[in-house]
User: Which sequence fits this backbone?
């Protein structure tokens, strides 16, 4: 698992548990389906069955897999649509800092790409790191923060 925020808490335990499950056993996924990931070292696209849940993208060899091949913790990542050299729109996942890797995915068609982009953005935003949420709260005008 690649993690941009290595805080060890319950959420990490849950995602580790989920990665040991078959894809259809993950309850209430936010998005699921086939995605192709660009493997930059070999310059090829590999197909995975993917499940998005709580800011984590689980990658499976197929829908019949018994457990995930791996997953990406997407906290802090930004999601955008980019056009690479072959004129196809892809989903770019950019890390919060340069020590982490940028990922490229594409779905079966443009409609699916847009569905994944919306789901990824929503899932990541739900899981703003706690320190960011506290900072946002502290930066509000005083009258907004009174109980």
Assistant:
């Amino acid at each position: 698992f690649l993690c941009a925020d290595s805080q060890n808490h319950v959420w990490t335990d849950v995602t580790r548990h989920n990665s040991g499950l078959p894809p259809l056993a993950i309850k209430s996924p936010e998005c699921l389906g086939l995605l192709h990931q660009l493997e930059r070292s070999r310059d090829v696209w590999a197909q995975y069955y993917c499940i998005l849940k709580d800011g984590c993208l689980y990658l499976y060899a197929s829908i019949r897999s018994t457990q995930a091949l791996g997953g990406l913790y997407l906290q802090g990542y930004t999601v955008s649509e980019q056009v690479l050299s072959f004129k196809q729109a892809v989903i770019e996942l950019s890390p919060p800092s340069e020590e982490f890797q940028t990922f490229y995915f594409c779905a079966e068609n443009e409609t699916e790409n847009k569905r994944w982009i919306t789901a990824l953005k929503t899932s990541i935003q739900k899981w703003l790191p706690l320190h960011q949420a506290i900072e946002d709260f502290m930066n509000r005008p005083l009258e907004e923060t009174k109980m």
